[in-house]
Design brief:
Layout lengths: L1 E9 L2 E7 L4 E6 L5 H11 L16 E7 L4 H9 L9 E8 L4 E6 L2 E2 L2 H11 E4 L1 H7 L5 H9 L2 H48 L7 H10 L1 H15 L5 H14 L8 H27 L4 H21 L3 H17 L4 H46 L6 E7 L9 E2 L2 E2 L9 E7 L7 E2 H4 L2 H15 L7 E5 L7 H14 L4 E5 L3 H4 L4 E9 L4 E7 L2 H13 L5 H16 L1
């Protein structure tokens, strides 16, 4: 229940404090007096953005305080998490805007809290119904919310929406798994191909020497020519090696004549041994040299194979063999997603089955509730002067043969809220067809339809306080009296605060406040005054005739108040 509003330094308000003691309060005032500023101030406390051009004094902060009683235990627990202390179930919510720092601060019982908590407190405790809410009723997408509230299936729809969201997430995950599997299969194919290619060519570390052998063969003729000349110089009976051997032997024989000659012999003998080894090496090399075209072709082919591997898998044979081992290890590590894909597919099938069951059950409950809502709203419309009108709730499906949800072998599109498309309609006369609200209803009718719907929903509303901001737009006379009576009946269930310009509605209230604009040479300010019986009669007289001192208007005002007391 809203107990107090305090506003300072906002728009035309220097400082105002209003206390609400009853279940039904009226706020009236001259056109342009500033009634809407009070509503805007209340919205500021709920966390709505502030229009900085409305800051009255740029040197001082804007302060809005709202005291609410009978707060739910859930919200009290959330406030406790911020360290808020309180007695009973009352909380004072405060919003402070510092125009110098362009900073907002939010408090509960003077303890700093988050903006989100303020928004949650307001959404659960105070509902504003004004022209915006009436326009909202013309938006077809909101109709299903009204019906679900009446059907008491908000929780079921929320559970359905959560499952629907999970299904979409799982379906996306399945798509991702399949993409990953496809990528893994491509990778596995590549790895298998690469390993097979390397193993078929079967490179060996020692084959790095083939490059040198190929370079040698490129100059084989020159090498053979030179080595044969060397061999010819050293070999044979007339070869120089044989001559050197004989010379060494002759020198050996003369050592007995001069011992110092032994050094010469040793050098000649060593030279012979070295040249003999060289001759043997030359012979061996020439014997091993393969000058055949077949061997050259073999080397060229083999080196081409090795170069192919080096371009793909490594600069050296050692790197190629390392790459092969790494590829084998990676191939073994690739895990198949088949099991996960299968399990997720089964889970999705179960989710679709459950969603189908839930959607059908929710739809059945909506259809039953729709009939009941029609009866109650039509009865309420009769009470506000719309007895010739007929309110109707249309529930339709959209066919979709590709859908998994089937009814009588037909597929229907599934949305996050179910399969139903809900739209409210109105017939303006017994013989006239039902048409969409946005096509047929006037401003006054929309206000009364909204009131009739709120009356039907009052049992299921979670908010304690309902504020009607000029819900009386477009009505007057007897209709205004009927609307006032119905609003008064609502106050038996909820706290009602009604901003109105109609005396018929104002006369039903328990408390009456008037907004007064005070104009001086320096500035314009508004104030709010709670009226006593005498002042209330004068205000209702003003609302009736525009003249608060008119004898006939005062008499009529007294009569209105007396009539309301008797009801």
């Amino acid at each position: 229940m809203l107990k107090r509003i305090y506003v300072k330094n906002y728009a035309l308000i220097n400082e105002i404090s209003i206390e609400f003691d009853s279940n039904y309060s009226i706020i009236s005032g001259e056109t342009g007096a500033g009634k809407s500023i009070l509503i805007n101030s209340l919205l500021l406390a709920s966390g709505e953005a502030i229009d900085t051009t409305f800051v009255l004094d740029k040197e001082n902060p804007v302060i809005v305080e709202v005291t609410i009683s009978n707060i739910s235990q859930d919200l009290l627990d959330k406030a406790l998490e911020f360290g808020v202390e309180f007695d009973g179930l009352d909380l004072t919510v405060k919003r402070v805007y510092n125009p110098k720092l362009l900073k907002n601060s939010y408090y509960i019982n003077n303890v700093s809290v988050s903006k989100n908590l303020l928004e949650e407190i307001f959404s659960q405790n105070i509902e504003l119904i004004g022209q915006h809410e009436n326009q909202k009723l013309l938006n077809v997408s909101t109709h299903i919310d009204y019906l679900d509230s009446f059907a008491k299936i908000k929780g079921d729809v929320a559970a359905f929406s959560a499952l629907y969201k999970r299904l979409n997430e799982d379906q996306q995950q399945l798509v991702n798994f399949k993409k990953i599997k496809e990528e893994q299969e491509k990778r596995a194919d590549f790895l298998s191909y690469a390993i097979d290619e390397i193993e078929k060519i079967d490179p060996k570390i020692e084959e790095e020497n083939l490059y040198e052998e190929r370079r040698t063969l490129a100059h084989a003729e020159k090498i053979a020519l030179v080595l044969k000349e060397c061999s010819s110089f050293l070999q044979g009976e007339s070869g120089n090696l044989n001559k050197l051997f004989h010379l060494a032997k002759e020198v050996e024989q003369i050592i007995t004549y001069d011992k110092s000659i032994s050094n010469i012999y040793q050098s000649l003998n060593d030279a012979y041994i070295i040249l003999e080894d060289s001759s043997h090496a030359i012979t061996t090399y020439l014997e091993k040299m393969d000058f055949s075209e077949e061997h050259l072709a073999f080397l060229d082919d083999r080196l081409d194979e090795l170069e192919l591997l080096k371009k793909k898998y490594g600069k050296t044979i050692a790197e190629i063999l390392k790459t092969k081992d790494e590829y084998k290890e990676e191939l073994q590590s690739l895990t198949s997603l088949d099991d996960r894909i299968q399990k997720l597919g089964e889970q999705i099938s179960e989710e679709k089955k459950k969603i189908s069951q839930m959607a059908k059950l929710i739809s059945e409950r909506r259809r039953v509730a729709a009939k009941q809502l029609e009866l109650m709203v039509n009865e309420n419309l009769r009470k506000v002067g719309m007895e010739s009108s007929r309110f109707a709730v249309s529930i339709t499906y959209q066919e979709d043969e590709s859908s998994y949800l089937r009814i009588n072998d037909k597929g229907y599109r599934v949305y996050s809220f179910g399969i139903d498309q809900v739209e409210f309609g109105l017939s303006s006369g017994p013989s006239l067809p039902v048409k969409s609200l946005r096509k047929i209803a006037s401003g006054g009718e929309i206000s009364r339809i909204m009131l009739a719907i709120k009356q039907a929903l009052i049992e299921y509303e979670t908010t304690q306080t309902i504020i009607f901001d000029e819900i009386d737009t477009g009505i007057g006379g007897k209709t205004a009296d009927l609307v006032g009576n119905q609003i008064a009946l609502l106050s038996a269930e909820k706290q009602i605060i009604c901003i109105t310009h109609l005396p018929q509605i104002a006369s039903y209230a328990d408390d009456h406040f008037v907004v007064i604009k005070n104009t001086t040479e320096k500035n314009v300010e508004i104030s709010v005054k709670k009226l006593d019986t005498s002042s209330r009669i004068s205000e209702i007289a003003r609302m009736l005739s525009g003249q608060p001192d008119s004898e006939s208007a005062l008499s009529h005002a007294k009569e209105l108040l007396e009539q309301k007391k008797q009801k």
